[in-house]
Structures are given as C-alpha cells and as structure tokens.
Amino acid sequence: MSRGGIQGFQKERLSQILAVRRLSQVQLASLVGVSPATVSKWRSGSQAPERDTLERLANVVNVTPEWFTRLPTAKVSLPLFRSNASAHVAARAMLEARIEWAQDIAVALSEFVDFPQLNLPSRKFIDPEEITPEEIEHAACECRDLWRIGRAAVQDLALAVEGAGVILIREETGIAQIEGLSAWSEVLGRPLVLLSADKDNGYRSRFDLAHELGHLVLHRYIPRPTERDRHKLLEQQAHRFAGAFLLPAETFANEIRTPVTLDDLLLLKRRWGVSVGAIVMRLRALKILDGDGAQLLFKRRSARWGAKSEPGDGDRAPERPRLLRRTIDLLVEENVMPLDAIPRHIGLATNDLEMLLGLQEGYFQGKGNVVQLARLRPFPVSTSEPVVTTGSTILPFRFTPKH
C-alpha cells in the first residue's frame, strides 16, 4: 500500500513513544490535531505524517522530528517484572520502552567509548525447575569471585555491577509498585537494568539491584512466563540469589547470635546494607531460623515498626549509576561533542536524557552543578580483568574518540 507523507517514518517509533508517554491513539490524535484514524494509519505503516504534522507530533511528545525517522535498534529481551498483575500492562509497556531508550543511548555512546567487558557467571538454564537452591548459592559465590570482592559486605553494588559491564539506569518512573526490570541487549552484547527511584530507600534499592542481577545470571535463557506459579518461582529464585549474594553464607552466618532479636538485626542491617526483612528471609534460607521462627520475627517486626518501613531506612542513600553519566562528562571534557549537541545526537529530549542518565536538571543547558568524578586511569587499561573498586569511583572503560 502506498504511504504518503515524510519519507522514512518509522512506525515502531510511534508505538514506542505512545508507551513511554502513556498515551492512547485517541489522546495523541487530539493533541496533534488529527483524527484517531490517521494515527492508526501511522502506527500500521500505511501512511506517514506530512512534514508540518510531524513537527507538531514531535513537539507534543517532546522528541526531535528526525527521531521518528531513525531505524529502531533490535528489541531487548522481554524483561521480567516483580508484579505479574494485568492491571500493570500499560506500566510495563512504558518501562519496556524506557529500557529500549536506555539501549539507544548506550548504543550512541558506544561510538565513542569502550564499556567494561561483560563479566557475569554463565548459566544456561532453560527451565526454572532445573535451578536448585544449591545452584543459586554457587552462582552467587561465583559472581563474587569473578568480581574479586571476597565475602565481605559490598560497599557499592551499583559500582560493582557497572564494572562488570551492565548498563544501569535509575530513575523516577511514577510506578512505585514495580521496583525494577532487566533485559539483555543483542546489539550491545550486554544486559541493562532499570531501577525505580520512586522509593528513596538505599537498602531496598540494593536488594532490587541484586534481585535483577539474579535474573540476569539465572534466567537469561528462560522465556518470560505467563503462568502465575512459574512467574512466582522465578521471583523466588531471584530473591534467593540476592540474599546469597549480599549475605554470603560462610561469613554472614558467623555473625548471627541466637536467639535472634530485632535489635541485633538492626545492627546487621547497617553493616551489610540489607533490610531486616531480607535478613530474616536469608536466615530462613540458611536454616538458622525455621519457618515458625521467621514468622515470629516478622510478626514482631510488623507490631513494632509497621509493615512498610524499618528504623534507619533513611540512613543509607541509594547507590547511583555512574557509567553513562561519566561518559557524557568525558564527551564534553574532551571536546568530542558540545554539550548542547548531545541531545540532538541521541534524538531525545533533554529532560528524558537527564532522567535516564542520572544527570542534574538543566545539565544540558549548563545549569547543573556537575559533580566531577575521578578521572579514568591512564590509557591503556586492561579489559581482560575488569576492575571493581568498591571504595572509589574509577570505572574500567577506555575513552576512545572516534576519528
């Protein structure tokens, strides 16, 4: 079928922006000043907007007109979500589109830098029933060994994950009930993790990241389930991995005094960076507590503090991604690209980039107080053994200007 209008209009981009902005076709049509049938034709590919209409469309959804003509990158793998409720269909679609935007950003930046070599344990399970608790414990230990972080408390999990080659995004999503998602990118050859920043709790955020790490390690080759029980099993396994990674058995168990009290667990919470609730679940997994003992502690916790918060929740700031933010800083510092040219190069609005990249509001207008991180180590840096330094901000990627 012949399609009029602008040449090269990508219908997939329209579907993506509808998901990100959480707009229906009827709502978009009203905003642009066209009929819903016209938007439907754009989306099906049977027709494309005229130039002036495209400019109105781009203005309404806050992207550049040219963005609609960019070939979309290959889709990421279907992410797993903590909530499997059908009520969250639109929210899940929005987050999937956001993580695709993160992939687009990383692809654009990879023209200028080498990201850290991917360094994750490899597991090729195709059925969650294959995965035993012992396998999960072993995978968590192997991950620590690969990253050379021993069995002590991890000081900065976000830094460690980025040092292992994972693209990490943390932004406010407006969907507090979905804490995070992860997916594999074929075009990047590495995974991406998007964490919700809506709950400003450093303890929960660390566990959410470790949970997504569990999905990446254990469930890469397992299709996203539709059955509730199968979905629940994957979530339980990712939870078990997070506990095993953050609270390794051979060192953490030695710090437990019996009988276990909530006051003792509050001290462990601060030391290990894990909530009391997650610690109780770990004690249950390690059989230090039986089911009745864990349930009793949960009841005491709820009676004493309530179900949704614990003492000290505000003591630990959430760990923030650095890799993409530092890459942007480098492009500007090394005069590879002017500050105001970066949004045009990527094609997204400045506020979307600032959110996805963890930049301060107004960064691209030169208004933000940009925090200068430690400069990269002198070239060359070995990529065969990625560096993970939990006490600094040095990341093991090379800055390679394109000539």
From TrEMBL:
Q: Which domain of life is it from?
A: Bacteria
Ranges for domain HTH cro/C1-type: 14-68
Cross-referenced Pfam families: HTH_3 (PF01381), Peptidase_M78 (PF06114)
Please give the InterPro entries that the UniProt record associates with this protein: Cro/C1-type_HTH, IrrE_HExxH, Lambda_DNA-bd_dom_sf, Rad_response_metalloprotease
What Gene Ontology molecular-function terms does this entry list? DNA binding
Which family is it part of?
Belongs to the short-chain fatty acyl-CoA assimilation regulator (ScfR) family.
Protein name (database record): Zn-dependent peptidase ImmA (M78 family)
Query: In which organism is this protein found?
Result: Sulfurirhabdus autotrophica
